[in-house]
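Task: sequence in, structure out. Protein: Nucleoporin 160.
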Amino acid sequence: EKMAAVLERSFIEICGFERETLQRFREVIVNLGLSALPGGLKFPDSAGAFHYEEGGKLLSVTSNRFIQWSTSGDTVQLVEQSLDTNLLNNAVRLRFTHCTVLPGGVSIQETLNNVIILISTNQSVHRLVLPHPTRMYRSELVTELHMQSIFTDVGKLSLQDPSHSATIPSLVGQTGSPSTSAAWLSHRGEAHYALASPVGGIMVVTLPPHDTQGSVSMVELKRSSMMQRLSGWMPTAIRGDQSPADLALSLAVRELEEDSFIFALCQDHRLRMWSLREQACLLEADVLEYMPACKGVKRLLGQGHRLRLAFSSTTGLCLSVYLAVPQRGQFTVLQLITTDNNRYSLEHISTLFTTQETLVDFHLTSTDIWGLWVDDSNTTVVKYINFEHNTAGQWNQVFVQPPPEEEVHIGVDQDPRIYRRGSERVTDVSWETLKKEVTVAVESELQSSVTEFEFSQEEYRQLQVEFWSKFYACCLQYQESLSMPLGLTVSHHTGLVCLLKKGLVSFLLPCFAVDHLYLSYDEYLFSEDETLVTEDPEVGRDVLQLVQCLRLVSDAVSGEMAYEMEKALEHLQSPEKAAELVLENIDNVIEDIQNKLQDIRNPMAAMMVLLREMDLETDSELTPSEVSVICQAVCHMAMTRALFCRDLLILQKLYLRFGDNVQIFNSSSVAEEKYQIFCLVKDGITPVTSDFLCCFRDANLQHLTVLELSDTPALSTNRSVLSPQTVVELFYQTVARKMIISQIYSQQQSNSLLLWTHMVSNVVHLLAQLLWPSNPGFQFPECLMANCQYTQLQEYVRLIGPWCQVNIGSCRFMLGQCYLANGEGQKALQCFQEAATEVEKEEFLMRLTGTEEEEAVSTTRLQYYNKVLRLLEDVGLPELVIQLASLAITEAVSDVSSQAALWTRIFKHHLDLGHNSEAYEALIQNPDSSMQLDCLRQLVVVLCERSQLQDLVQFSYVNLHDEVVSIIESRARGLDLLAHNYYELLYAFHINRHNYRKAGTVMFELGMRLGREVRTRLGLQKQVNCYLAALNCLRLIRPEYAWIVQPASGAVYERPGASPKRNSEGEFSSEPVKRQVDILELKDLEKEYVLSRSRLTLAQHHPPSAAIAGSATAVEMVALLVQSGLFDSALSLCQTFRLSLTPVFEGLAFKCVRLQFGGEETQNEAWSWLADNQLSSVVNTKESRFDFSD
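Result:
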């Protein structure tokens, strides 16, 4: 396809794995008791990598997994990396005492059960046998986030044992140490180490298979002096040269046909192939024969020559020789040819020339050569070329990460303390902690340098800029050291290309078409014979001309101008005005740009081709890779395209200045929108808020539960070892990666390998689509909400608000969530209301409303309102619930059940807030009688509990009067009389409505219950008051209506406290209860009053008799009163009930007889009971006689 071709024109470097801190390396010291060799030989630091054979098999244990190594002096650092999972215990540092690791001294190979690491030093050879990942984890599919590395148990190995290490045997008369090496594992399991002998030739040290007993053996591969003379060379001793001609500069090994072939590129410019089995040189070739104009080179000994091998089933074994000669360097690719009689020859395939940078490393694949250089300014240079099919030997570009700017532009409105994450990470402290420590350190340094106590704000700002610039310069030096390139690795299985640096690993990703054009160096851009963004050759030429104009604009835009354009976006201003201001400041290049623009035949077509190529608006399915790599690639792509659109926008303004072109004007709006979008996406490097893990996590999950968004990526408690540090990483790690992996696995053909170049390009492109605000998907903002990234989410919505016309309602909802988290409830409510208009149009809002478990609601908008109401209730904002519910009622005009539910909600929250009148109004408006009755019952209970009886009594209760009475009656009859005052409430209710008969009935009923249930002095006192109140009520009525209805004794209640309207289950009785009733008139109530008053009098005179008096009849009460000497009360009771006075007279006579015959004590007692009977007919003297003539 067209795009596939575009993707392989150039690559771009993306920094990947973080720099490991020293504490993460486990150090293992290998001491064989050797002494350091004299001379202090040093080799340059180097690095390499081993890629598993099934690295391209998705979800296998070794998928996207490799081992990187680096050497420095006596140390080898090994790190196992994975793009799919987090490997635990994956770093180890091996230190070989008094030894120096040789160039090419690390080789890693895998067998069915083991990963074997072979290491060569100048005095020893070593073998580490580690378990293969497939033996550590036997499941076919791997989905865990964490796995153990093969280095987990490396500390348990005894590396000094003979099975793991051996000393290189010394040869007689030989001094010095090997200069380079190569190691490999034979098909029989033997470990071979080829060492370049300092006196020429090759020493091969062999360790027996690790699972068998045996001793170390060594053979020397060296040609005799006679053979050297025959081949045109004299022994070193005869020439007087200090270095032998056949000293191997670079070694490579390949096993073929059960034999090991060792290729040695020597300093005499000859390539020799040795057979280990025959211990003979089978092939010798002068590689200068492939170098044109090599006169004079033969007299020089080679120094920087390199050799690499590559094998494939189609091309066989290919060799690439790099010849490092003064003023020129070249790669020669040769193919090994085997004849019928087992003789070998080399066939020349290609010769490729390079520029004069210093070669650090190169890699040969079956089709390409990848080279790594540093130039005179110590800048990293990476290029690659197809050694068979290329255009005039031109190397393809790799756009490496440029070094950070030496100076950072700080606007007048900016704080000098600018923080931005670099490519490496510090994993032992958090980002927030690091910021605080750095700030304290720099500010302390600033304060200590200040000698004056007072200075202006501008002077202080200048000091800040100065000290922060010093700190920034230190960071640049540190990063420059860590970014020193050491090696290059290319996976033969997946095409994964990694750049190995001193402190980090970076990945090379295919460059997209537009990015390729914009980033290409001028010499490449001018030599482009076609552009793959269009098939029309004329449009293609216009595109190239247009890109050259954009490059002129880009070079002319200064840092201040670029900052002003970005600031305009941040302040929601149109970038058009900023572009016009830029034009006014680049007058010096406008003429050059205008000259180039005249060569463009159809500028509108060229612009639209480029804008269309950058368009990410699509509904494509997703197709994973490591979090930081992918996310940095997306942000880098967005950054490049933001600059592209910025320059295109400026160029369009220039077009409009030259003449009125409506088409150009229309396309400028497209460029402006894309500039805004790419600026937004590139800012995805915004740091994750670190405190969301503790402060908001529980509350956030609770809110998500309320919203019932089951598929929203909730925050995982088991976060990865490499915690997401930017919001894009957070999104990729928690949402997108899982979708991508499952999609790839579902579409992958069985046993097919994934090519890195194709896979990573698709992932980057599709992740960018998920982040593209103009696409219908809403996963990115939803992820920010789920992980409490409210600050970033609010800024995201603010930036896209003016121009994004997709998911408008969803963005308003998200903004409402942000306001809720920040405690701005009223703003949140406004956003929720604005989002309601889009509920039926947007996928996120439809999903939000599609999980309603209650009864079917008439409209989607009502479902949305219900969700938001529950959210506001969960947050605890009843005032906002009332406002939104009131608005929702207007949407439920024809839905009675929804109206009832909303009025019930309003009633509840008004009641909770103490808004009694508003709660009553909501109750009255409720159209559902059942809900209305429930609310009424709750209103009565709550107001009674709050003792707000005045409000309760004064409400009018339109059409609910009987229901209120019924509720209060049921409460009164079902609860303890002394603990609750519902009877008094009901009495006040009737009195307030001038219904005196019912008020009297209530008081009479209360009095009757008090007589039966509360037989105490207090109960009797209350009973008297109740009967007195009942009498007063009936006396306010005209005599003919002064009566009440009383259930007959024994039929009033079937059980104490029972309700006359409800059964024992609390439900209304289905059948009316048959009762006998009595009509009580005023005189009947007066009798009950006199009887209750006499009971109270008796209880007051003799408290223990209160329990008996409570249920005593009038006749019984007369006897009790007489017995207690209360003749006055007994006489009054007899007169009221028309009883015989005989008991009274008999009792009085008995008292008189006792008084007449009693002594002094009896007479004193008599004065006490006479005082209790204050009747005017009684004469209170000793000599008087009792006269009852009245």
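The chain has a mean pLDDT of 79.
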